[in-house]
Design a protein that fits this description.
single chain, nine-stranded mixed beta sheet, three-stranded antiparallel beta sheet, 12 strands, globular
């Protein structure tokens, strides 16, 4: 158990990939920033679990992403910036997951999600040596593969589609659970070897993205996800800058957690304060570096690209 699960060749590829990422952003004049890995606040997202710790006699949490810290830096006037380092999530394990993983996150001031989506494609093409890039809306992806409109289909129609298309262990209880199952279990594997950029998600899945109407007048979340090799790599937003709406969403997350008996974490009021102080209009994206390395090196398991996964850490 003392030996690393990643071999010397894999570790050299990791070093080369990290260097390539930094060159990509240096060429574009983005500032590399550092934010705390240990915080007094945790994510509000009910679908992500924080790892807890004790620090100076009080609870603390390992960062599930650098997002909150980076947005506070943006509000302080840092400008275009990126973070390349560790993040932590409880319960993450499997062929594509480890509780400790490497995340790349960056923000572009004055950009929207469409412009940032193009840069994500450029980064992935540059580092993965892929030239085949496709962009399509969430609606068009579901229509092409499943013959339904995910924005207007009834819950019953979506449940029936799940029963027909997905071998799931449980009955989805909501529209979003149906959509998530269809996307992750049915649509992701069908995306092929190129890069697929999916945008305009349902408004109910906005998370920290702003909302707007699409060309059909449907209210959608201005966020996107990037896929390659049938695997999700990145999740980006045209960032929400409305402090009151941000506070409403954080409270809604808290309410959901309480109703579903999930851990209740300290409220991140400092993010709301940062938005009130004037965080600039921007777009941001988070990308899983370990997964990108799996694709770059043709590895099947995340343990092949991490020297010491949790069972050997």
């Amino acid at each position: 158990m003392w030996q690393p699960t990643a071999g010397p060749e894999s570790l050299r590829k990791r070093g080369a990939l990290l260097g390539g990422i930094r060159r990509f952003f240096s060429d574009r004049s983005l500032l590399e920033v550092d934010v705390p890995l240990l915080s007094r606040r945790a994510t509000s997202d009910p679908h992500i679990a924080s790892i807890t710790a004790q620090c100076n006699g009080a609870p603390a949490f390992l960062a599930t992403s650098p997002e909150f810290g980076m947005k506070r830096l943006l509000a302080a006037g840092v400008g275009d910036c990126y973070y390349l380092g560790k993040a932590f999530r409880e319960g993450e394990s499997g062929g594509r997951h480890n509780p400790e993983f490497t995340m790349l996150e960056w923000y572009r001031c004055g950009w929207d999600d469409r412009r940032l989506m193009t840069e994500v494609g450029e980064l992935l093409c540059s580092l993965l040596h892929i030239t085949d890039v496709h962009a399509l809306s969430y609606r068009d992806l579901f229509a092409r593969e499943l013959g339904l409109d995910p924005h207007s289909a009834s819950t019953a129609e979506l449940c029936h589609c799940v029963q027909r298309e997905v071998d799931a262990d449980y009955e989805p209880a909501s529209r979003d659970e149906c959509l998530d199952l269809l996307l992750s279990h049915r649509l992701e594997p069908s995306m092929g070897e190129g890069i697929t950029l999916v945008y305009d998600f349902p408004a109910s899945q906005a998370a920290l993205a702003r909302l707007s109407e699409d060309d059909r007048g449907t209210l959608v979340a201005r966020r996107f996800e990037a896929y390659a090799g049938g695997m999700e790599l990145a999740n980006g937003y045209w960032e929400l800058t409305d402090a009151e709406e941000q506070q409403r969403r954080l409270r809604a997350d808290h309410k959901y957690r309480r109703a579903h008996q999930l851990p209740l974490y300290p409220f991140e009021e400092r993010l709301v304060q940062a938005l009130r102080a004037g965080m600039p209009e921007c777009a941001g994206v988070a990308l899983g570096v370990d997964r990108m390395l799996m694709l770059a090196g043709g590895y099947d398991s995340i343990e092949e690209v991490i020297a010491f996964p949790i069972e050997r850490a």
